[in-house]
Each structure stands twice: as structure tokens, then as C-alpha cells.
Amino acid sequence: MKLFTTALLLAPAIVLAASPHQNPMQDPQLFAKMKERILPAMTESLPYMEKTKACVSKSSNTKEFNDCAAIKMEFRNKMMANEPGHKDVQPPQPPKLEWSPELKQQALTDIELSINNTTATIGCLKSSNNREQMSSCMQKTGIKSPKQPQHP
User: Fold this and answer.
1) Percent of the chain beyond pLDDT 90?
2) Three-state secondary structure readout of the chain
3) How confident is the model over 8-28, as a mean pLDDT?
4) For the chain, what is the mean pLDDT?
């Protein structure tokens, strides 16, 4: 179980990077608007990820480990509060996980991957002015757009 879901943070950026043949949204102005909205959210997520990583790194029991999920939920709640129609929606509670050295290491690996991918995506967003540049940048960093289903 991942503490930080990379896909959740990267999904909007991956949509931006999808090639025009895979993505029906080809309007360059739409790219700029989406970039304007996504970049601050991704930038704001990094301190929460770092804080979660530090928390998990220090954890030595189930309570401490599960308390680290509160950091992730704090960020999620902050982001959702800014979304229309989500102010009254109760967020799901994170699953309670039983601490083990293996789970701790897997969580740290997952968080580090999330931090690296988010940092790379932020760099690509900042340096890109269109989908083609974004896609090229993300491929160079190793972040690939998801494959689209093939239509018969």
C-alpha cells in the first residue's frame, strides 16, 4: 500500500503530456490554463511529501507509521477544499497498516519515487509551452504517458 499515490499527483501532468493523437484536448490555450492550475498544486505537494518521508523514516511502530498518513490527508483535504463541490465531502480514511521494517522501507521507496517524479514533472511543466515539449521532457526524465487503449 502506497502512502503517497504518484498517479494522483501526476495524472494531470500526464494528460498534458499526451500526444495530440491520444488526447482530444489540442487547444494550446487549454495547455496553458491546465499548466497554470497544476503547477502550484504540484509545487505545494512537495513539502508534504518530504514531511511524510521524514515521519515514515522516524516511525518504529504501527501508531507512528499510521500517524504519518495524516500528513498526506492534510494536503489532500487542503486541495479538495479548493475544488468546487468538495467542501462538504468527507474524505475517505486512510487504511490502518501494521508497521514492519519491510512496509516502512516500501513506503519510503514509494515516497521517494513520488518526490522524484513530482520534481521532474514540475521541471517539465515550467519548461514546456505545449504538449509536445511536455511529452518530450517527461520521456527524457523517464516519466511516460500512459498507453491509450487501442480501438479496433
Assistant:
1) 46
2) CCCCCHHHHHHHHHHHHCCCCCCCCCCHHHHHHHHHHHHHHHHHHHHHHHHHHHHHHHCCCHHHHHHCHHHHHHHHHHHHHCCCCCCCCCCCCCCCCCCCHHHHHHHHHHHHHHHHHHHHHHHHHHHCCCHHHHHHHHHHHCCCCCCCCCCC
3) 51
4) 79
